[in-house]
Amino acid sequence: MILHDHFNVNEKGHLTIGGMDAVELAKEFGTPTYIIDENVIRANCRAYRNAAIKYFGADALPLYASKALCFTGIYKIAAEEGMGIDCVSGGELYTAKRAGFPAERIYFHGNNKTDRDICDAMDIGVGTFVVDNFDELCAVSAEAQRRGITQRILLRITPGIDPHTHKAISTGSVDSKFGTAIETGQAMEIVKKAIAAEGIDLAGLHCHVGSQIFDIEPFSDAADIMVRFIADIKRECVYEIRELNLGGGLGVRYTEYDREIDYAASIRDIAAVVTGFCKKNGIRMPRVILEPGRSLVAAAGATLYTVGSVKTIPDFRTYVSIDGGMPDNPRYALYQSQYTALIANKASEPKSKRVTVAGRCCESGDLIGENMELQAAERGDILAVLVTGAYNYSMASNYNRIPRPPVILVKDGEARVAVRRETYEDLTRNDVL
Ligand code: LLP
User: Fold this and answer.
1) DSSP string spanning 171-224?
2) How far is the centre of ligand 1, averaged over its atoms, from the C-alpha of 381 (Å)?
3) Any idea which residues carry the catalytic annotation?
4) What is the pTM of this model?
5) Residue 433 in domain
6) 24 CA to middle of ligand 1, Å?
7) Same-domain status, 93 and 201
8) pLDDT tens-place string over residues 73-89
9) How many domains does the chain have?
10) Which terminus of the chain has a lower count of CB atoms within 10 Å, N or C?
């Protein structure tokens, strides 16, 4: 096993993903290619669902935060696994609808839903809007009235938690583009306005503290702050909050330095805070919604590349260049995210080198990692980067006019193309002049 149960080495010394030979997959589908082990995603959905129901009650619902990995087929998997989904744009909504995802289980997020987004979401009958701020509340209320409907909403509240994660992916502190803060008094104000607003059914509250978080404290602190706020609302507004969405953000093991997280145990610990407070304070237990993205899909993925030039600069370093890079995985360039790489066709050999894995873009920051432990690499080898299921394909670009790789789903010894490789024709499809 390498990092996670579904990454292994076979008798040929090749990396296997969900039991399938990565070198054979690279041969069949070309490189670069995203490989996703569907069984891992399904097992993670079940683990979240079972734990949510066990610890929060039968009506608890985990949503898949689909920004982590978005294509039509993933919404079908989420639907089959009884999940709800979090969408953040018209494009995600469109894709979910194309997959036939039940609209009442869609939560529509985003700090700046355009008027068109609001209309599109109402057209498809999105179950719940997560309203970010006062301005948006007015816009949603106005459109709902125009249509003569009542739109169910949650309000995104900023609990004032600053988890220890990269600044760009931390979202729960007061000074944030997301949500309305309790600390400034504005959260109570927006709650009152939402209760009074025409065309609006205020079902509950939402918070999300950040992403790739390993400690349980930011989550349990946020949960504690949110249930206290629910108690304040009950007292001050004589209004019962029926639903509490605690967001996503649990971390994932990318390298052997990251510890493994027991998601069910984390959910149990967060539930203890919520149920304990509600019991003690005579508050009816709200329906709890969880919203994981990364922890459902990251570990399921690996990206396969072909090694090109290998260049050693004496006294400096060795660059191992691959046929992909920041266009298919911008996370090292953006956040210095650490990954585990190996040579898939030499997986049983020792990692004897420390190298920089470089992409093929005209940009020195186009790296997948520095100081990465790797087997001795040479032109033609297949390099695998593990745990790329989240925020890789969904953040991919066409920088340097490089076509995006395909997404291949593997399951029970079978590999299926879920998203085909982009062609040069695809790249020029919208060029009018
Ligand atoms: N809910 C909300 C409102 C969110 O903003 C996010 C992530 C999630 C749920 C899911 O969080 P997760 O369970 O995946 O941590 N591009 C960055 C991650 C940005 C996360 C944005 N929001 C990265 O590559 O690390």
Assistant:
1) --SSS-SSSEESTTSHHHHHHHHHHH-TTEEEEEEE---BSSB--SHHHHHHHH
2) 33
3) 362
4) 0.97
5) no
6) 33
7) yes
8) 999 999 999 999 999 99
9) 2
10) C
